[in-house]
Amino acid sequence: MTKPSRSAFLLIFCALLAIMGKRANQTAGKSNKKAKTDPVLVSIADAINQADHLPERCRAMLVDMLPFSLSVASDKRHESQTWAVGTVEQTLNAQKALLEAAIVVEDEKLATLKASESSLASTVTEAEVALVAQKEAVQSAEGARTEATEAATTAGNALVAAQEEQKTGEVTLATAQEEKVALESAFEAHFKVPFEEGNGPHFKELQPFLKQIEMEASLLKACPSSCAKSKDDRGSFDEVVLQELGKALSSKVTALGEVVAVETPAAADRATAVQTAENDHNAKKEAQKQFEEALEGAQKEQAEREAALATATNAVEEFQPQVEAMTALADKAKLALASLEAGALTGFTTYMNRVEVSTEVAVAGA
User: Do both 186 and 238 map to the same domain?
Assistant: First the structure.
């Protein structure tokens, strides 16, 4: 014959309890009084009420039927009372199994937690070592960033100097070219042509250029007078003055030509130097940017490792309180099991197996 499932059994049992409740109405007052005063039944009732795996109604009916079933001697029980006692036994054993399982779970958790103690300490040590290494990396990155910044500043200054030198050279070359063109034109039109035609040089037109030439002061002072005379009116001194004036103007043109000849290729060199300095400055600035980004990354990594160390340290600090709390849970489960075994289960076993002793047997025994 197939055994009914627990749910089916409970339904059958609840029906039987209802029937038993009707039959037991006559002795309910006396039995309830006994259930409330008998410490064994009280402990069993408490255990049943703690059996959360049963519906509350079934637990209440089991408790109500204890005095009508378990209080009856085993050899005097009705079939329905035997079923009730068996259900109480199943309930208590299930409660015991749940407590034993809870103890196993708590003990496993506690063992796992205790086993993690060494790894927690190792984690703290590793985090400390990693943080020290990262701090050194940050210092190194700061030093590299500082060097790159200084190099970029130096390159920037070199670029400014090259640009200023280029600007000065451009002014020098442009001035020399302008002065040379102007002086050549004036020398040709206002000195050579009139002089070759037997006239005196045009002093008024040449006067603006006299500050640029090198000529003996006394001769330069005599230029206005000598330039005003034609070839036929000049004396020997006038000839000397005009010859020296022509030489001075010609020498100045030559000197300006030499400046142009020198400054023209120098301008190209200066342009190249500016381009080189600009490229170097850009490269140094890019390197500076990269080192700054590297420093930011290193600082971020340091902050993360500091957080990791704080987390690991906090885990170590919380370890012992967690052990104590988990130990308390395990002890509580063990105490509950011990209380169930020493109280409800022991009392239930005694009541479940006892038989009624007749008066004759009791007297004979006495």
Answer: yes
Domain boundary residue, one of 115, 145, 166:
115
Token pair of 17 as six digits: 């309890």
| The token pair that represents 318 in the structure block | 């919380």
The verdict on 141 and 243 lying in the same domain is yes
User: What's the token pair of residue 278?
Assistant: 């600009």
Q: In this structure, is residue 351 part of a structural domain? A: no
What confidence tens digit (pLDDT) does each residue in 35-85 have?
556 888 898 888 888 888 888 898 898 888 888 888 888 888 888 888 988
3-state secondary structure of 200: coil
Distance CA 96, CA 338 (A): 9
Per-residue confidence (pLDDT) for residue 171, from 0 to 100: 94
Q: What tens digit of pLDDT does each residue of 231-279 get?
A: 888 999 999 999 999 999 999 999 999 999 999 999 999 999 999 999 9
CA 155, CA 253: separation in Å to the nearest integer?
A: 40
The answer to whether 81 touches 68, Cβ cutoff 8 Å, is: yes
> Which pLDDT score, from 0 to 100, does residue 54 have?
84
DSSP 1: -
In a domain, residue 208? The reply is: yes
pLDDT average, residue stretch 357-361: 53
- Let me know whether 73 and 207 are in one domain: no
Q: In which domain, by residue range, is 56 found?
A: 6-115
* Average pLDDT across the chain, whole number: 85
- Contact between residue 236 and residue 211 where contact means Cβ atoms under 8 Å apart: no
Angular region, 274: left φ>0, alpha ψ -120 to 50, beta rest:
alpha
